[in-house]
Amino acid sequence: MTAESGTARRPMLAALPRFSQQINRVLTWVVVGLFVVWVVGNFINAPKQFVSVFLLGVTLGSIYALVALGYTLVYGIIELINFAHGDVFMWGSMIAVTVSAHWLGLDGSQGWYVTAPLIFVTLLACIAFCGTLNVAIERLAYRPLRNAPKLAPLITAIGMSFILQNAGALVYGFIEQPVPDIFPTKPLFRIGGIAYTQKSLLIVLITIPVLLALVYLVRSTRQGKAMRAVAQDMDASRMMGIDVDRTIAFTFALGGALAGAAGLLFVMYQTSTRYDLGFQLGLFAFTAAVLGGIGNLTGAAFGALLIGLIQAFNEGLSWHTPGSSWTQSVIFSILILVLVFRPQGLLGEAVSDRA
């Protein structure tokens, strides 16, 4: 009797995971459907306002994408959520203010033939500083804990975030650091009385080739192949002659360089930065990486674009929106929903679990 009942229960227990997956899939599509209805409703209610807010969201998403890719690169190779990455981005924005406004004297009055080379010099400075900073963090804080339980490097990452944040407050103070409008602000066109400026277009045009170059590096170069090999199996990579430590350091340098570039673009767009900027924006970028598919480069960029659009829609649209004061709650609610119902992200990249 007991054996028969146990045998009868086995098919039911085996069917539970499939049933749970179906429920998750249905709930995911319900949430996506409600979001689409809300977006379409806003478009019908005020099409001109919708288009202008959409373009703003694309600009914000472009900045978030550069930061989200740093999270994805590090997680993909050592399965670590580098919570200090947002503060590396903050330091990139601070270096951008220091170099462009304080050292090079850019104030928006110079001609483009002077401004463009100096902005490029500032970009190189931000990339070099943040790349070096990220490598130093990996070498001093994460590498000694590589074989420790996963909770140890996670707590260390949170500690490094606080250290970088407080160091920023110590050096630059607790007030906002302004920078003049250096990028051209002339309107390209107007939609519903709202201008889309040259500055916004430049942000997108700079971000796209950076993302394409990153994808090419990871997928088509020798170093990129080494990164993918280490991400799959560190021990096998060592036996094949790959320098694992150097490859991981290169990955951190690449992520830091992207954060530095994002820091420059952000401060040129918003014309100010703060010591605690990395906390909020870093979490937005982390949410973008999870939404698109952690460990997936294309997914991180796609998720960042969605987060940028959601933020812009929530703060700029008028039909049934919570309002700008609810932006953080909306985005973190999305993070929770994704982790519960689709932890592999929208693009379906399954999260590996290496022993």
Strand order of the largest sheet: 1-4
Number of strands: 4
- Write down the CATH class: Mainly Alpha
CATH architecture: Orthogonal Bundle
Order of helices and strands: HHHHHEEEHHHHEHHH
Strand portion:
under 5%
How is the CATH topology named? Answer: ABC transporter involved in vitamin B12 uptake, BtuC
Chain-averaged pLDDT: 85
Overall body shape: globular
Low-confidence segments: 349-355
Rounded to an integer in angstroms, the radius of gyration calculated over CA atoms is 22 Å
Describe the biggest sheet? 2 strands, antiparallel
Distance between the termini: 40 Å
Give the helix tally.
12
Helix content percent band: over 70%
Judged by helices, strands and strand pairing, the structural class is mainly alpha
The tally of structural domains comes to 1
Describe the structure.
The protein has a single domain, classed as ABC transporter involved in vitamin B12 uptake, BtuC, CATH 1.10.3470. The protein contains twelve helices and four strands; from the N terminus they run H-H-H-H-H-E-E-E-H-H-H-H-E-H-H-H. The strands form two sheets. The chain has a two-stranded antiparallel ribbon. Strand 2 and strand 3 form a beta hairpin. The C terminus is likely disordered.
